[in-house]
Amino acid sequence: MQAKPINSYRPYWAKRFEPAPILPMSRAEMDVLGWDSCDIILISGDAYIDHPSFGVSLVGRLLEAQGFRVGVIAQPDWQNAQAFKALGKPNLYFGVTAGNMDSMVNRYTADRKIRSDDAYTPDAAPNKRPDRAVLVYSQRCREAYSDVPLVIGSIEASLRRIAHYDYWSDKVRRSILVDSKADILLYGNAERALVELTHRLAKGEKIADIQDIRGTAFLRKKIPEGWSEIESTKLDRPGVVEKHTDPYEMKMGKADASCATGTPSPPAPLMEQLSNRLNPQAGESALIPLAGERVNSAMQVIAMPISRKPKADRSKQVVRLPAYEEVANNPVLYAHASRVLHLEANPGNARALVQKHADREVWLNPPPIPLTTKEMDYVYDMPYARKPHPAYKNAKIPAWEMIRFSVNIMRGCFGGCTFCSITEHEGRIIQSRSEASILKEVEEIRDKVEGFTGVISDLGGPTANMYRIACKSESIEKNCRKLSCVYPGVCENLNTDHSALIQLYRKARALKGVKKILIGSGVRYDLAVKSPEYVKELVQHHVGGYLKIAPEHSEDNVLSKMMKPGMDAYDEFKAMFEKFSAEAGKKQYLIPYFIAAHPGTTDEDMLNLALWLKKYDFKLDQVQTFTPTPMAMATAMYHSGKNPLRKVTASSEDVPIPKAGNVRKLHKAFIRYHDPNNWPMLREALKKMGRADLIGNGKHCLIPAWQPLSNKPVTTVRGEQLERTVRPRRVGEKKRKYS
């Protein structure tokens, strides 16, 4: 897989301007820079923070390095188009994003309740972005300047590139490309597509004619000439099994239509009969007759020719998904379409996809070619200011506070967890920065970021420990169609060597002025146990007392729907963690994360998880309830009740779905079994399940039979805050005092 390097384009003429200290958000800032206009204006649902962890900043600086003048309109007032005219009319296009998060996930809880804060907004103020921000912003851009090309991207657009189930309206919606009326959609990590698109527009190409860039989606009226179309149902459903041609099969010539007597010729004998009948002295045209069989002198032996179809050119094949109107009304077809899209996700072998929406075709080119290490360094070595825009003054932006001292070392994830959107958006192939680039960024944080105390909060990415890990064979990687490299077990073709990451950790913490390097990203522990040296390095030097990992559940039938490893891998990692912590003389703890109400989960599964938590004395405050996000495989399960990890038909495996609100609340309550507010609900559920034996004060019991008068924690005892509840006082009993 080769592509033109993103740093090899001839810069646009505006390269003569110096890089902006920070990308402008007003005409006054443009005047200071000497700009009369912007070539590109980026719209974002997030506050503008000039840091590579924020998508608009990253692509803005990338386009600036290509020679273009880039302005930013962050969190505009979407009630009218006036705010979208703040920087004037862009010369090339509007680039519209919802921000780092999907606007619906950002604004609503898993129970569809509006959140009271927004981590990507100054002072966490809520309601600074609209629902379905890409659609709203796109409409306002059209109202502001109807003739300006409109390019949409970000995770919100990326995950809605085809017909998708929308949890918040409980229906299948059309591709966001159709509803936004955008000219083109860039999905996934879009640097390569964005750079090529921008340079071609700058040279005068019309955006409607640019239809050959990987990682893009657009509308067509019909399939172009020269392309062969394949129905997705023929790819992923068992069809008629045709008998293979036998090259040794013997057939009679035309002269054998009948014997001299006029009787029909006998059917051709089987191979084992023919092998005994061939007369080598008479030549291959004569046969030794069987007993009682008459001989035809004209009989001939003719070998059937081998019929092979020419190898298809996959670059000119397009897979047709069921139309929007079909998947909107047929959940089974929706699950099928989801499965096919995921199978066509490897940049090495993916084909184009097409899905009809009424009289228009939504066309998806194959995924983008991943960035090389040199290209990753190029993207992350831009002159970022590493701070929020000065317009925000002293406002606190929680998302910035969380990542200001962290470094992104890689992107992508080959885990393939069905509930996660990382793989769908960033792909399965890991894209890693060089060691030198990462260490340079650590030094920049040390020297430039206000408030640095010597602690780097994270060296990670989507996962903490996939840095530089890849398939052992480029050929196998190019042709692989597996949904995960680590499920149901770590693939034997995966190179699990963590030595590059170990070396990076050691060099980073040895830098002058760096006191501690913490790992804040989640560790893929089933991968980590393949390298005990890595686990030792991590535990003894990079854990600040607690390490978060995500088993997600304890029951195998649920984990199989998540594509997560069984608890054996967790137990193995836990043993290593405790061993290496003890060797270092440290008391450290694992903090596991679990998901409630995931597709495939029953009440009994959640009860077993609660008993597991009680057995190991885990009392978790943070519980993640499953949220069906667009395009995720688990979302297809949620909507269809089918398992798209296997071939999907009307009679294929049914998956139990905890959809009802009271069921979802119960599943969450099981994880928080220690919360007295959940005890009444759990008592009722346990009785219905025939497990009233788990109600009481015995060690084997999950919850007590009594309810406290107050759920507030008791005062401190010996300097420690106790999260404790008391039984109701009996009549005449004095109040118990604690000291």
Rg for CA atoms:
32 Å
Low-pLDDT windows of residues: 238-293, 713-739
* Overall 3D form: globular
CATH fold node name of the domain at 397-644: pyruvate-formate lyase- activating enzyme
- The proportion of residues in beta strands is 5-15%
Q: What is the count of helical runs?
A: 25
Largest sheet: 10 strands, mixed
Number of strands: 27
Helix content: 25-40%
Distance between the termini: 69 Å
Describe this structure in words.
A hairpin with a 2-residue loop joins strand 26 (714-717) and strand 27. The strands form nine sheets. The protein has a ten-stranded mixed β-sheet with strand order 3-1-4-5-8-9-15-14-13-10, with helices on both faces. A three-stranded parallel β-sheet has the order 23-24-25. Strands 2-16 form a two-stranded antiparallel sheet. Among the domains are: 13-212, Response regulator (Rossmann fold), CATH 3.40.50; 397-644, tm_1862 like domain (pyruvate-formate lyase- activating enzyme), CATH 3.80.30.20. It is of the alpha/beta class and 739 residues long. The protein contains 25 helices and 27 strands. Helix content is 29%, strand content 13%. The longest helix is centred in the C-terminal third of the chain and has 17 residues, at 567-583.
